Fold this sequence. Notes:
The structure holds two protein chains of two kinds. Chain A is α+β, with helices and mostly antiparallel strands.
Amino acid sequence: MPDLEQELRALGTALDVPEPPDVRGPVRARIEAPRRSPAIRPRWAIATLTAILAIGLAASPDARAAIADVIRIAGIDVRWGDDTDAPTTPRSPLPGQHPTDLETAREQVGFEIGVPERLGEPDRVVVADAGRVATLLYGPASDRIRIDEFDGRLEPVFVKSLGFDTEQALVTGETAWWLPEPHPIRYVDRDGVVRAETARLAGRTLIWESGGVSYRLEGDLTRDEAVAIAESVR
Amino acid sequence: MRRSTTEDTEAVRRARDGDPDAYEVLVARYTAPAHRLAYFLGAGDDAEDVVQEAFVKAYRALSRYREDAPFRPWLLRIVANETRNAVRGRKRRERLALRVLDVRTPDEPYLQAADTDRRRALLAGVRALAGKDREVIVCRYFLELSEAETATALSLPVGTVKSRTSRALARLRARLDMEVLDA
């Protein structure tokens, strides 16, 4: 009886794998380039751009103080009324955003990243604002499901402006909020600066909190689908 | 085949201190296994990009690298993660990984017909393994990594590597036995 392990090693050497490329030049060029401009591959850059909240600096840091009618849930302020003070100043992405993988993201953020079993491993993971927000992305840009996660014990992280009613929902017995219509969304950064999105509205969204972590799930989902995904987070 | 880890550690230390020549030595040394792993894990045409990206990320992560840990499996772990980042979807990676294990490839003129048949059968067996078992077999035998190195590269506990290896070997043995009976 031949030694199976030996045979496997021989098989490995016989397999036709292309010659390794010489990457010394490109690697060196990139590690010597200024850190500010990491050469994200074009494919990634596109994925990242579609993933990010395209955001602008708020016209005034007082914007938060001006919010009158607010519910605060899971680190998200939801505010009713029109959003006339939405800024038109230059857009900037969620600060410090970079694509990564789940394992690295888990090392980079200060909370436990939950992954919904119903969706499985995300196609993309993005960490922003020095580990404050982790974003899991599923599916192509045209049919994207997006989950933002952050430490729910923080001050409000997102501000949503609504011109319509929200619905209460239950996620494993806890109060959650279902926002059934597109709405503007802002990000409140570490320094309390409100950064408002100007490029795109958030779609249907479920907001909930679990184990000290706040989640906002966004995608073309029914309320029941969204709740089912939320309840499968481990 | 295996470089001494002290040599690597020294190169890492110098690279971290800002010596790009030292890092280039590591790049040259480990491009081949990195490329091979990316290929076997399903990077397909992206394998070169994956390798390049992995080396750049590894460089930027050198400050987090523990000097007493061997460099090669640490790098291969970044390669494995990078492959998952670069090629979307488990199924797509699986398809690309299987393409590398094409049954036609291992023909070698100096092999006896019976040996060729057996090798084909073995390859078919590897293809038929569950993806996570196959990844362990790829690391242990096609890349000739130790159990500990495989565990690091695939981000698995060593015990899991052991159990998956023995499960996969048992399946392969059973399959080869069947082929013999068929013949």
